[in-house]
Write a structure and sequence with these properties.
Blueprint (H helix, E strand, L loop, with lengths): L1 H21 L38 H9 L4 H13 L3 E2 L9 H19 L5 E7 L6 H21 L7 E7 L10 H7 L1 E7 L1
Parallel strand pairs: 2-3
Antiparallel strand pairs: 1-4, 2-4
Helix pairs in contact: 3-4
C-alpha cells in the first residue's frame, strides 16, 4: 500500500508539473515604439534645362564702323568743346526768362556749326543748365532757372540741334558764379550754361 501511495503521489506531482508546464504563461508585451512622424519629402525639383551658351554675335566691320559713327571721335569731341567754349553763357534780366539780344548773340555765334556736328552723332548729348541770383525763394528760383534753360534749349532747336540731344536742369540759386551781394554780381548769376554729357 505504501507503494501505491508512493506511485499516486508521484503521479500527482508529475501531473502538477506537466499541468504547470502546459499552462499559458503571461508574457509581458512591450508597447510598440512610436516613431516620430516622418516629414514628407519635398517633391523633387523639375530638371533645369540649361541652354547651351549662345554663340557670340559676330560684329562685322561695317557694324562696328556704324556703332562708332554714332559717337564722335576725340578730335570731334574737342571741336564740340571749343564751340561750347565760344558759346558764352547767355545772361538774363532780373526775374525774366526771355533771351536778351546779347544772349541770342552768344548762342548764335557757333550754334549752327554745333548743330551740323551733332546731327551726325545722335547719341551725343548736351545739357542746358539754368541759374538764378540769390534773391527769392529756392522754389521760385528753381522754376525760373528751368524756364531759362528751356528758353535756351528752344533757341538751339530752332538753330538745328535735335531736341532729343538736349536736356535741361535748373540749379536755381545754387552754384553761384559770383558771391557778392550787389547787382554786378547778381547779373553774372542769372544765366544758362551748356555742357556736353560724356
Amino acid at each position: 500500500m505504501k507503494r501505491s501511495l508512493y506511485l499516486n503521489l508521484m503521479a500527482a506531482v508529475a501531473i502538477a508539473l506537466f499541468g504547470s508546464a502546459c499552462a499559458k504563461k503571461k508574457v509581458a508585451v512591450k508597447a510598440p515604439a512610436i516613431s516620430p512622424p516622418v516629414a514628407q519629402a519635398a517633391p523633387a525639383p523639375a530638371p533645369v534645362r540649361v541652354n547651351p551658351p549662345a554663340a557670340p554675335a559676330r560684329v562685322t566691320p561695317a557694324a562696328a564702323q556704324k556703332a562708332a559713327a554714332r559717337y564722335p571721335d576725340a578730335a570731334t569731341r574737342a571741336r564740340i568743346g571749343e564751340l561750347l567754349g565760344h558759346i558764352q553763357d547767355a545772361y538774363f534780366d532780373y526775374d525774366r526768362h526771355t533771351l536778351r539780344d546779347d544772349a541770342v548773340t552768344a548762342l548764335a555765334a557757333d550754334s549752327k556749326e554745333l548743330a551740323t556736328i551733332l546731327s551726325q552723332f545722335p547719341e551725343y548729348k548736351l545739357r542746358v543748365e539754368g541759374y538764378c541770383d540769390e534773391r527769392g525763394s529756392a522754389e521760385y528760383n528753381i522754376a525760373l532757372g528751368e524756364a531759362r534753360a528751356k528758353a535756351a534749349k528752344d533757341y538751339l532747336v530752332t538753330a538745328g540741334v535735335s531736341g532729343g540731344q538736349l536736356s535741361t536742369v535748373s540749379y536755381g540759386k545754387e552754384k553761384q558764379s559770383c558771391d557778392e551781394h550787389d547787382e554786378a554780381c547778381w547779373s553774372k548769376n542769372r544765366r544758362i550754361h551748356i555742357i556736353a554729357l560724356k
